[in-house]
Amino acid sequence: MKQLAICVSLCSILSTVATADVGVGAKPLPGAEVIIDGSREMLDQKWTYWEGPRFASSLPIKWKIVDDPVEGGTCLMTDDPVAAGGKYGTADIVTKKPYRDFRLHVEFLITKLGGNSGVYLQNRFEIQVLDGDKTKHGMGAVINETESPYHAYNGVGKWNAYDITFRAARFEDGKMVQKPLVSMYFNGKKVHENVEINKVWGGPNSGVDGGNNNGFGITDTPQGLKLQCEGHDVRYRNTWIKELDLKEANTNFNEDE
């Protein structure tokens, strides 16, 4: 019984260690770049608008730095009047720096029922942020590729965290030979593992390559991380990204970093 108790204890410790860098409040990994810290200075320094076909705003970024309603401090609010009514693509923001393979941590809070935003990997592939939707278009889904892991969602008025490892598509002689892959923890629970992404969903207003061969024309270019504005009060904080070079077609956490 004593040996069993030791084994259970060790297994518990190992499990904790393996996921210590995921979930709400996770601190940046060594070598990671903080891209949202709740300050206007960082917003202007590291982000800009995505000037896609539907873009309707203008710099400086109209999103606001507001109070964190849960834990104090400040956070970023997806507030731009041109996006009212769900007009995505009109005021989405994207990092000035492009990324290929990476490990991303992003925290978000939805203030009202039905709140809608989205996290776009390489400004192409959306991880949905949408309260109340449990479908393949819903909360935490690799949009239209997986079901929503809604069971992991903390709910309205609470902070949530996505921890994502992304491996970009691979090309040879200009032709895609390996599809992009994504693995994800949602609030510390593993919900996606090595999910292949087949296309850019949502059309040209959604992201890069969305209008290229109906979204199947993925190009061999790194792109920025994008956050979507749809006229809802969704807030972001504690967001960081670490560039990786994933040699193998595997995006499991703690294995290739």
What does the model show?
There is one protein chain. The chain has 257 residues and is mostly beta strands. The protein has a single domain, classed as Jelly Rolls (Sandwich), CATH 2.60.120.560. It is built from 2 helices and 15 strands. Strand 7 (116-121) and strand 8 form a beta hairpin. 43% of the residues are buried. Residues 1-18 have low confidence and may be disordered.
What is the subunit arrangement here? Answer: single chain
CATH topology-level name: Jelly Rolls
CATH superfamily: Exo-inulinase, domain 1
Quickly give the CATH architecture: Sandwich
Task: Give the uncertain stretches in residue-range form.
Answer: 1-18
Average of the residue pLDDT scores: 91
- Round the Cα radius of gyration to an integer and report it: 18 Å
Find the structural class using helix and strand composition: mainly beta
Helix fraction by DSSP (H/I, runs of at least 4): under 10%
Tell me the name of the CATH class: Mainly Beta
* Main beta-sheet strand count, sense and barrel state: 8 strands, antiparallel
| Order of helical and strand elements | HEHEEEEEEEEEEEEEE
How large is the share of residues in beta strands? 25-35%
Count of domain modules: 1
The geometry reads as globular
First CA to last CA: what distance? 37 Å
Distinct helical segment count: 2
Count the strands? 15
GO molecular function, one term: hydrolase activity
Pfam family, one: 3keto-disac_hyd
Domain 3-keto-alpha-glucoside-1,2-lyase/3-keto-2-hydroxy-glucal hydratase: 50-242
Keywords: Signal
